[in-house]
Design brief:
With 208 residues, the chain is of the alpha+beta class. Strands 1, 2, 3, 4, 5, 6, 7, 8, 9, 10 and 11 form an 11-stranded antiparallel sheet that branches. The chain has helices spanning 3-15, 186-207; strands at residues 20-25, 39-45, 48-58, 75-77, 82-87, 92-101, 111-118, 123-129, 143-147, 155-162, 168-178. A hairpin with a 2-residue loop joins β2 (39-45) and β3. It has one domain (19-180): Jelly Rolls, CATH 2.60.120.1350. α1 packs antiparallel against α2. Helix content is 17%, strand content 39%. The radius of gyration is 24 Å and the shape is globular.
C-alpha cells in the first residue's frame, strides 16, 4: 500500500465524518395553552430552533374560530407567513415536512417557498403548491407532505415563506443531523499510528 494512501487512512481515522441520525420533529411535546393561545417568536425543540415574527403552537384545531388546519396532533404556525429553522449543534439535512394552509376560512397561500443555506456558501431553493382543498377532519384545511431532493444536506439554516403573506403551518419535519465521530483516545491513536508505521517499514524492506 502506498505511503500516501496509508497516511490518508490515518487522517480519516481521526477526522472522519460520523453517522447521520434521522428524526421527525412533531412539536407534540411542547407546552401549549388552551385554545391555541401560545404565541412564540422563537422556540427550541429536539435540538432545533424555529423562529417566526408571530406564530402559535396549535394544540386544539377544533377550537379555532377560523377553522385551523387539523392533522390530529399539535403543529406550529398559524398567524405567520414565514418560519425559519436552524440546528443547535451543527449542519443538518432536510428530507421532508408536512405543511398546510393554516385556516379554512381565511386567505390561503397557494405556494410555499423554501430556501436552504448551506455550510460554506451556496443556496438551495424549492417551491411547493398547496392543493387548496379542505379535506381534513370536519372540513378543515389538510396537511400535505412535501419532500426534498438529496441536495438538501449540510444546511446551516432554512427559511419557509408563503406567497401573498398568507398564513400556513408545519408539522412532522424530517431531518438528519450529522454528528462528528468520537475523537479516538490517545492509546488508540498510538496503536493505530504504530500499526501504520510498521506497515510502512515492512513495505520498505520488501522493495529493497
Amino acid at each position: 500500500m502506498p505511503r500516501r494512501l496509508l497516511m490518508w487512512a490515518f487522517v480519516c481515522l481521526i477526522y472522519g465524518n460520523g453517522p447521520v441520525h434521522a428524526e421527525v420533529i412533531t412539536f407534540d411535546t411542547l407546552p401549549a395553552e388552551p385554545r391555541n393561545r401560545t404565541v412564540f417568536g422563537e422556540l427550541s425543540v429536539d435540538g432545533y430552533v424555529f423562529s417566526s415574527p408571530h406564530a402559535h403552537i396549535v394544540t386544539m384545531p377544533g377550537r379555532c374560530d377560523t377553522g385551523c388546519a387539523d392533522n390530529g396532533t399539535q403543529w406550529v404556525g398559524g398567524d405567520t407567513s414565514s418560519i425559519g429553522m436552524r440546528s443547535d449543534s451543527g449542519t443538518f439535512s432536510l428530507r421532508a415536512l408536512d405543511a398546510a394552509e393554516a385556516f379554512a376560512d381565511l386567505a390561503k397561500p397557494k405556494t410555499l417557498a423554501v430556501t436552504g443555506a448551506r455550510f460554506g456558501g451556496g443556496v438551495l431553493k424549492a417551491a411547493f403548491a398547496f392543493d387548496g382543498i379542505n379535506d381534513s377532519v370536519g372540513g378543515q384545511a389538510d396537511f400535505q407532505k412535501f419532500s426534498f431532493s438529496d441536495e438538501w444536506t449540510h444546511l446551516v439554516g432554512v427559511s419557509m415563506l408563503a406567497d401573498d403573506d398568507a398564513w400556513f403551518g408545519i408539522d412532522n419535519v424530517m431531518v438528519e443531523a450529522a454528528s462528528p465521530s468520537p475523537v479516538p483516545e490517545p492509546a488508540t491513536l498510538i496503536l493505530s499510528g504504530a500499526g501504520l508505521l510498521a506497515t510502512l517499514r515492512v513495505r520498505r524492506r520488501r522493495t529493497r
